[in-house]
Amino acid sequence: FSEGAPDTHPMLAGLGVEPTGNALDGELVASLLKGRRSPLKAALLDQRLIAGLGNIYVSEALWRAGLSPLREAGTIANPGKKAKQQRDALAEAIRAVIADAIAAGGSSLRDYMQTDGSLGYFQHSFAVYDREGEPCSKHGCGGHIERIVQSGRSTFYCRTCQL
Fold first, then answer.
1. pTM of the entire structure?
2. Secondary structure (H, E, C), the chain
3. Are 129 and 56 in contact (CB under 8 A)?
4. CA 68, CA 108: separation in Å to the nearest integer?
5. Range(s) of the domain holding residue 82
């Protein structure tokens, strides 16, 4: 492929928007999710929409945004002030989770490590991922982290504060 145009390479051409760039905002999230009837978490894992979001990062971003992984994805694109606040919060949470994970060197689970052999430390700041049964750490929540299975993947969330 030609230098300067990696998005035309067959392996990259179908990937969605980059989650770390300024392009990812609430309006873009709304346009990507409009009309989607799948659960919000499943839609966010679709690499054709937003590239690079994995199971951990989606669970953490949804918790930060206060959104249920079970809600219909398209509802984030609804008209009105509340839906706008939710999609703006989701876009911000996605960007923040990715930035925090990069700053921490990623998440070292099982056999992941960086190219130099060092481990990442983002797993030490998980709010929900792999914390089933623990109290929710969101101030004033009082709920507990639950684990469900969606599309064959573990989803961790707090049904009390993630609506």
1. 0.86
2. CCCCCHHHCCCCCCCCECCCCCCCCHHHHHHHHCCCCCEHHHHHCCCCCECCCCHHHHHHHHHHHCCCCCCEHHHHHCCCHHHHHHHHHHHHHHHHHHHHHHHCCCCCCCCCCCCCCCCCCHHHHCCCCCCCCCECCCCCCCCEEEEEEECCEEEEEECCCCC
3. yes
4. 26
5. 16-124
Instruction: List CB contacts of 147: < 8 A, sequence separation 6 or more.
Output: 132, 154, 155, 156
- CATH code for position 42: 1.10.8.50
Q: How many domains does the chain have?
A: 1
Residues in the chain where the model's pLDDT stays below 50 = 1, 110, 112
pLDDT, residue 40, reads 98
Measured at the CA of 126, the angle between CA 124 and CA 127, to 5 degrees, comes to: 135
Q: In the block, which residue shows the tokens 């398209």?
A: 74
